Hints:
Blueprint: E1 17-24, E2 32-38, E3 56-62, E4 70-73, H1 83-86, E5 95-103, E6 108-116, E7 123-132, E8 153-163, E9 168-179, E10 186-191, E11 198-203, E12 205-217, E13 223-233, E14 244-245, E15 256-264, E16 271-278, E17 285-292, E18 303-308, E19 325-326, E20 343-346, E21 358-365, E22 374-380, E23 390-391, E24 397-398, E25 404-405, E26 410-418, E27 421-428, E28 434-440, E29 454-460, H2 468-471, E30 489-495, E31 507-508, E32 514-515, E33 526-528, E34 552-555, E35 558-560, E36 566-568, E37 580-586, E38 608-609, E39 617-618, E40 632-638, E41 642-645, E42 659-667, E43 673-679, E44 687-689, E45 694-696, E46 699-702, E47 710-715, E48 719-728, E49 736-742, E50 753-758, E51 787-789, E52 793-795, E53 888-898, E54 905-912, E55 921-933, E56 947-960, E57 964-965, E58 983-986, E59 990-998, H3 1003-1010, E60 1012-1013, E61 1026-1032
Amino acid sequence: MVSGITWPDGDPFLQRQNEPSIAVSTRNACHLLAGANDYRTVDLNFLATGETGDAWLGLFKSFDCGASWQSTLLPGYPLDKTPEGIGSPLKKWNAASDPVVRSGPSGFFGYSGIAFTRGTNQGQVFFSRFLDLNNKENGSAATGAVNTNADPIRYLGTSVIATGSARRFLDKPWMAIDIVRGGGGCTLQVPQPPPNGVVTQSVAVGNIYVAFTAFNYSQVGVLLSSQILFSRSSDCGTTWSTPIILTANDDDNDSLNQGPTIAIDPRTGFVYVAWRRFATANHRDAIVAVASISGGHWFTPAVPVITLPRFDPNHPLTGSNGPFSFFDQGTSGTSMRTNAYPSLAVADSGSQEIPGQIYLAWSQRGVGPNGEARIMMVASPTTLTWPKPFPIDNGPLSDDIGNSFARGHQFMPQLAFSGGKLVAVYYDQRIDHTRGFYTPNVPFQPDPSDGRLYKEDRVPEGELPANPGAVFTSFFDDWGLTQRRHTIEMMLSQAVPGPVPAFTPAVRVSQYIFGLRGDVSNPSQLQQLQENPPNLPLFANGSVPFFGDYIDVAPLMMVPTPSGGWIFNTDANPNQAPVFYVAWTSNQDVRPPVDGNWKHYTPVGAGGPSVFDPTQPRPNCVSGQEGMRNQNIYASRVTQGLLVSSPQTLKPLSPTLQRTFVVLVQNLTPANRTFHMTIANQPPGGFASFTAGINNPGAPVTPPLPVTAALDVDIPPYSGITRPVFAVSSSRLANITVNVVETTPAPVNSGLARFVAFNSDPSSPLTLLNPDGSTSGDVGIVEIYSPSTTDPTIFNPNAPNPNAPNPNGPNTGLSNPNAPNPNAPNPNAPNPNAPNPNAPNPNAPNPDLPNPNAPNPNAPNSVVPNPNAPNPNAPNPNAPNTNITNASIFDAAYTVTNLGNTTGSYHVKLVGNNPGNIPLQLTVNKTNQTPTSSSYENPTGPASCQLTTENHNNVQTLINNPPIVSPVNLNDPGIQDPSSGNATFGFPLRCLSRRAPCPTPSWEPHTQRRLTRLAGRHRTRGVRLVEVCLRRS
């Protein structure tokens, strides 16, 4: 998610981010807000004297459904000179961590965390407010050191929920936001991007609930106990109630409680809070829960939901019948910390005032075939009874060859419920100590059953073939391994709710690039080039690992009702398959130090004054030592196979100005599918049509004859199309809904359906703002479409050196076979009291460390991340020649940008002839850039150690063998052409690529001369579909 190269709006020092939290805007489901622990200010190594940069909280935004991200820091960080930062109550603290981000009605977002002074217990639990105005189609989230961001998600301020003291440290909050129940809401004054003024917004935000931990210490710093506290706000987070203690009836004077989670029943508004209680002399290990039927005013007494014995190293794991214990392990030089914190979700009962099923999940040893930890769940039909727990995923994982992998732990679950689906995400070790190798299909065609071009064979490596017992132990620790580090995957499983929901087979959300290596015995074998080893020593000056204590998964939480209210988006809707966003931490971009010493970090780039402390010099980059802190957070979009979206869902309508909304339909399955698109309703005093009316300047628009309210489209696998919706109305915020339903013939048809609603929130602002980069014209009174294309760049996508030794691997083989500290105290001991040198507060028993790794800057995954999915960089799968190595592959790439003031739908045509019937492939990609070091391509010399970027392509359109058309018919926009070869796309920035094998050495320059632009800059008043035509002859 970190995409910039300048501080603070990027990560120029390739530093750490971790523990992400993510939320989806309720005004535009393509607008995302996220947070993470973020070390981007650290440009100095840990020194014997003097301060170094510290952790703060990152602020991440996406305006295209996660295809690209912008980021900066949450206002209030120590060096913040923006008006928002100077006025923040966080400004007096030097560090912050533990983010949780949630969305509410009317585009509202809440962002909570803790801010503190390291080395003391002083700190605060805070709440920051944001509102998505959804009235601008782009905008920079960057602030620099003194400016205000220019995007539509606006920062409203920060309030303090609770303050710690010298003997009380406040730790990790969790949050939930409710809808308005029986009146309420609030009025907000929202500053718009300069030079625009403030806009008033009345939002239907209900109660906001926050729970957090308070660690209590003696006068000499000995931990005495920890309590779970709860506070509520009924005015959009402006003020907060005095925190109440939820653990008061549990003899909490000597109990240790931590890790609260909150869920709200969508029908009744009942509030549920659960947390972990650690074993002490007077208390057993347990997960404890309370419930409130009063909107958080009072709660039931705390009751243990599940109680387990503490792990006993003298009774090792033997099988699936125990011994049972929560899956905890502490921090050491070779093991990351993790504790079995619970996660909650509540189903929709389908009936008002009737509570839904409650689902609680955690990680527990003694359940897998050899006693490994599994994600356990209990489903309660009421607030008082808790039936027998069950594992949600206790079978093996399999590759495409039929190899099965059953051993390994699962941990750190998160639950979400949306659209009648219960989703669980978690880390999984079952394919640890294996590497994926990929074999092309013969013939090289997509597999009819799953669309894959390659079959994956997971080959055991390191200790696994000869000694699996050394790999799969009671803990997830690299100590004792001499050949290969542990690795994990991010997994997802979903179920339909019920007393014991049957979860689908788990799928891998994490994805890695694959290619060729030159340092192996078979350099022509395609293989996985990245791994995610969580135990790398990236913290405390390169001495211990940290991977965060949480991951996250978020759907669209709420939707507007026809009457102007809001409801939770939990009920099953056959016309709206749910979409989820998963965020997690990954070490796949970490580059091990060339000298093998994890303490010898240098930031990338030339030396100079430190950003954190200009009085200190930042060290010069040493090639090979600059990538060892590059931990990132990744995000993945998970769909049921269909995504229907729009870059702009708000446009005030007029009888005289014809507006255009763009509908993007993406088929994210491996099969070719057909869909029927319908405009479900006509706005009053006007029309909504897929074809345009006739503009009459100063007079009402003449409707098209006939109004086109239905279209059919045929979409190839892993591809998408766009269609415009032209709209006129006498009602400024008239609602328009476009339905998309699958019509593929059986047996392929899987009933996919989704819709997108325009102007669905009547509380939205009525004034649109021009996007950044617009050349002219107020979008409030005129729509201008002005695409600009570059001349083609010709290049060979097969690299300069496809056999380069593993450029992306984060070193799953150990630098030191003898472990950093074989005599370290048992890192697996479940001791929640052990101070953690990486924690924001070293006195806190279990604080959440700031660790930066951005949500997947590579394409958001649809359905399941699949390394075999058609790749825009792959050779044409329909090529008659299945020998993919005997001809060069060349791309002609055009960069297309929009200089107009609104998004349009564009049609791409290849014009001319192809007498040799050369196989072609046309792709339209959204390109996202992330920071990296030039040393990865140039390890030595003046070109090394430079901060640069690498591109990540997110495919919108992928067409094999696109049709070549005559230049006679270029003015036909093809709106009603349903064929799969009809290539269309919408802005923002796109890269058009035409790929072909090169039959002769002279073909490349010939192509460069003959591929030209036919459609240049357009400027149109009113509405018109503009084509971008590419000619090849």
